[in-house]
Amino acid sequence: MAHHGEQHYNLEQRFDFTAATKKSIMTVLVIGAVILGLGIVLAMTGGGHDEVGEAGGHAFHWYERLYANLWINNVYFTGIAIVGVFFFAIQYAAQAGWSTPLLRVMLSFGYWLPFAGILMLATFFLANHDLFHWTHSYLFDKNDPQYDSIIDGKGAFFFWPMAKGTFPIFFIVRMVLFFGLWVFFFKKFQQISDQEDQLGGNSYWIKMRSWSAFFLIFFAVSSSISAWDWVMSIDTHWFSTLFGWYVFSSWFVAGLCAITLLTIFLKGKGYLEMVNQNHIHDMGKFIFGFSIFWTYLWFSQFLLIYYANIPEESVYFIERLTSDVYGPFIFVNIGLNFFLPFLVLMTRDAKRHGVFLKLVCSILLVGHWIDFFLMVQPGTLGHNGGIGLMEVGMFLVYGSAVALVVLGGLAKKNLIAKNHPMLEESYHHHI
Amino acid sequence: MERDTHFILGVYEDEDVLLHAVEKVRSNGVKIHEVYTPYPIHGLEVVLGYKRSRLPIAAFLFGMLGTTLAMTMQFYMMSFDWPMIIGGKDYAAFPAFIPVGFEMTVLLAAFGMVGVFMISSNLKPWAQPRIFDIRSTDDKHIMAIDIANNSAMDLEKIKEILKSSGATEINNKSFE
C-alpha cells in the first residue's frame, strides 16, 4: 500500500533460543544419531552388500560409506552456510532495501562456517584414499603398473610445490585459505553490523558495501575452485567446465530455502513483524528463479556431454544413469529440484503464502542434498552406495547440528539491523 | 444517456491527494471509469479495486502451446517424416529437442503475451486513442467518471464529491 502511517516496530527484538526449541532440535539430533548408528551396525555386519568378488577393485569397507556421507554433508552444509553470507553481501552490493529486516537471518548461517571448515579438514585426513582416488601415490609413479598419465598431468593442482603423490599441500592450502577468508569476511560483516547498531549513520553501510564487493570477487573464484577441489576431484579423470557454477547454483537454492524457512520459523514465533507477504514473495521468486537456473546448468552440462558423446566425458553420466542404485535418483533429482518448484511456485499466490513455501523449501533442501549425493557417492562407493539408514541419519545429525549452531548464533545479536539506513524503505516494500 | 460518451473529469495536482480522492469517490458510491496519470502511481490499481491481471494465464497457455508445437515439430520431422541419425543418437533424441522446445516456449509466451496485451489494451496500430485531457501526459492526474454509468446519482452531487476530494478543476468531456 502506498500510504501507511508512521510505523512503530520493535527494533530491539532478539531471538530467544528457548530450551523447548533446543530440546526439539536435540531430539532430532539424537534420532538421527540412532538411525546413523543402526546404519553403521547394519553395514558392519554385512548389510546386504557383497564385499567379495569386485573385479579388480579393492574390498569395500563399511566406513567408506560413512566417510562419503560425512563428505556429502560437509559440502552441502558448507554451501548453505556460505550462501547465507553471500546473499547478505549481495544485498549490499545491489543496494537492496527490501531485504533489510532479513539481513541478520542471512548472516547467521555463517556461524556454521568455522565448524564446517574443521569438519572438512578432519574428514579429508580421515578418509583420504577412501574418498579421493588421486591421493594414491602409485598413480604418479611411472614405474608402477597402476601409473595414470591423465591424473599425473593434473597432479600439480593438488600437490604443488611438493612432489606429486606425497602431501597434497596445494589442495590443503586452498581449503584452509577459503574457509579462513570466508570466516574472516563473515566476522568483518558482523563487526561492521555491530558498530552500525551501536553508533548508527550511513558510513557503516558504505563500508559494508566495499567489503561486500571484495567478498563477492573472492567468492566468485573460491566457490568455483572449491567445487572442483571438493566435488569434481572425486571423479578425477572427468572434468566439466561449468561444474563450479553447477555446484554454486545447487548451494544457492539450498541456501535460499534455508533462509526462507528460518524467516518463516521466526515469523511463526512472533519475531520480524515488519516482514510481510511482499518480502516472502521476493524470497519465493529467488527460489523459483534459481531453481530454473540450477536446471539450466544441470541440463547444459548433461546435453553437451550427451551430444558430444566423448567417452571420457560421458562416463560420468553412464556411471549414474545405468546404475540400479543411482539411476532412479537422477530423475528424482530433476523432479524435486525442477518440476516441483517450477510448477508449484509459478503462481503469485504460492510465493506469497508461507504454507506453500515451507513445503517447497523443505522438499528442495532434501532435493539438493540428493544432488550432492549424486555428485559424491557414485565416484566413491560405486554400486555399494545408495540412500539407506546411514544417509538419513547423517543428514539429520548434520542438519540439527547446523540448526543448533545457527540459531545459537542468531540469539547472540539483535535480530534486526536497527540503524540500517534502508530499514524504513523495507517496511514499505510492496510488489 | 449513452454509455462511454459523456464524462465528468476531475483534475488532480498531487498523487497522494489523488489516491485519497479515489478512495473517497468510490466510498461515496461513484463508479470511476478510469484514471489517467502522466506516470505510474504505486498503489493506484489497489485503491481503484482493479482485479489482478490475467495476462500470466495467457503467457502460460501460449508457453504450453510453444512447447507442444516445438516437440510435435521435432518428433514429426526427426523421427517420422524423414528419420535421420545424427551423432549416433536415436531417431527420437528427446534431450536434443529440449533447447528448441525451450526457445519456442519462450518465444510464443512472449509473443502471445504482447499480442494479448495489445488487444486487451486496445493498442492496435489503427486504434484512435481518446484524449480526455491532454494535460494527463504532462502534469495533471485526470479522473474520468462516466455519467451514464452513474445515472443513479445527481450530477451536482458527483461534482461536489470531486471538489471536496481535492480536485482543482472539474470539467465535462464528451466524445462523438
Strand content of chain B: 5-15%
Beta-strand percentage range of chain A: under 5%
User: Care to count the β-strands of chain A?
Assistant: 0
Determine the most extensive contact between two protein chains: A-B, 13 and 18 residues
What's the total helix number of chain A?
A: 16
Total of helices of chain B: 5
Shape of chain B: elongated
Can you put this structure into words, describing what you see?
The complex is a heterodimer of chains A (431) and B (176). With 431 residues, chain A is mainly α. Chain A has one domain (38-45, 67-132, 168-427). Chain A has 16 helices and no strands. Chain B has 176 residues and is α+β, with helices and mostly antiparallel strands. In chain B, 46% of the residues lie in helices and 12% in strands. Chain B has helices at residues 15-27, 44-47, 55-81, 94-120, 155-164; strands at residues 6-12, 34-36, 141-146, 169-174. Chain B has a 4-stranded antiparallel sheet with strand order 2-3-1-4. The longest helix of chain B is centred in the middle third of the chain and has 27 residues, at 55-81. The two termini of chain B are 13 Å apart. The model of chain B has no long low-confidence stretch (mean pLDDT 93). Chains A and B meet through helix 10 of A and helix 1 and helix 4 of B. Chain B: Keywords: Membrane, Transmembrane, Transmembrane helix. Chain B: The chain crosses the membrane at residues 57-76, 96-120. Chain B: This is Quinol:cytochrome c oxidoreductase membrane protein.
Task: Chart the SSEs and their pairings.
The complex is a heterodimer of chains A (431) and B (176).
Chain A: H1 19-44, H2 62-93, H3 103-108, H4 113-127, H5 149-154, H6 156-159, H7 169-199, H8 203-230, H9 243-268, H10 277-308, H11 311-321, H12 327-344, H13 348-352, H14 354-381, H15 389-410, H16 423-427
Helix pairs in contact in A: 1-15, 2-4, 2-8, 2-9, 2-14, 2-15, 4-7, 7-8, 8-9, 9-10, 9-14, 10-12, 12-14
Chain B: E1 6-12, H1 15-27, E2 34-36, H2 44-47, H3 55-81, H4 94-120, E3 141-146, H5 155-164, E4 169-174
Antiparallel strand pairs in B: 1-3, 1-4, 2-3
Helix pairs in contact in B: 3-4
